[in-house]
Amino acid sequence: MTHPTLHAESSARLFGGQSSDWLPVHLYLDDTKKAFGDFRHRAFRHHEQGALLCATSLATDPAHQEKLYLVAEQHIREDCGGRLPTIEDWLDCFDVDGLGKLDKPVISTSVMNQLCAKRFNASPDEFAEINDWIDGLDASTRLTDSYHSAARYLRHHSMGCFEVEEVFGRTMPLSNGHNIPTRYIAEYHNKVEFGYIPAASEWASLIKHKIWMSRASFIRPMEALA
Known about the structure:
This protein is mainly α. It has helices at residues 4-15, 19-30, 48-58, 62-79, 87-91, 109-120, 128-134, 158-168, 182-194, 200-204, 221-225, and strands spanning 171-173, 179-181. It has a two-stranded antiparallel ribbon with strand order 1-2. The chain starts with a helix and ends with a helix.
């Protein structure tokens, strides 16, 4: 296992500056270990799409986002044996036969938008962006709605409800004149899908180990310049 501080020191060697300049990237990527204590926590952010989300969450300037993406990629490759997996790579390692109570019918985003509109007294299109993001149909995530039901592991859980606040802000105005906490939308989304809000650990526990998931390997400076 590696630590954010060690990743940050590696970043300073690779990209210059002080390790403290890069530490927020590594803290962001490893924050998911709060939800699950072993290597399987990496499934939530240690992938190509997670690196992009990290960069856009921590910076607004495109040039700075590009640099942070490279730092996030460094972290992920160091943790995953030099590999930059995709979300689909993680999904291919799920024990889909063990989903149990998580194996519920997938509700389409359009239907979810209509249900949210009824629940919160607003129009369906006001919820489309958040529900697309929860379902992994946003442009940065690029999951297809035909992927198996374990694809919901990414954001259909209590941790994902708080991630909605990070991405969309804590509240959003509705056409009915009220502001609503964005987390309420995510929580309602989960309750409609599953009848409750799953914990991220319920999903992570279904991942079958592959060597690349827990193979630490630090990148040498010359490799970063190649």
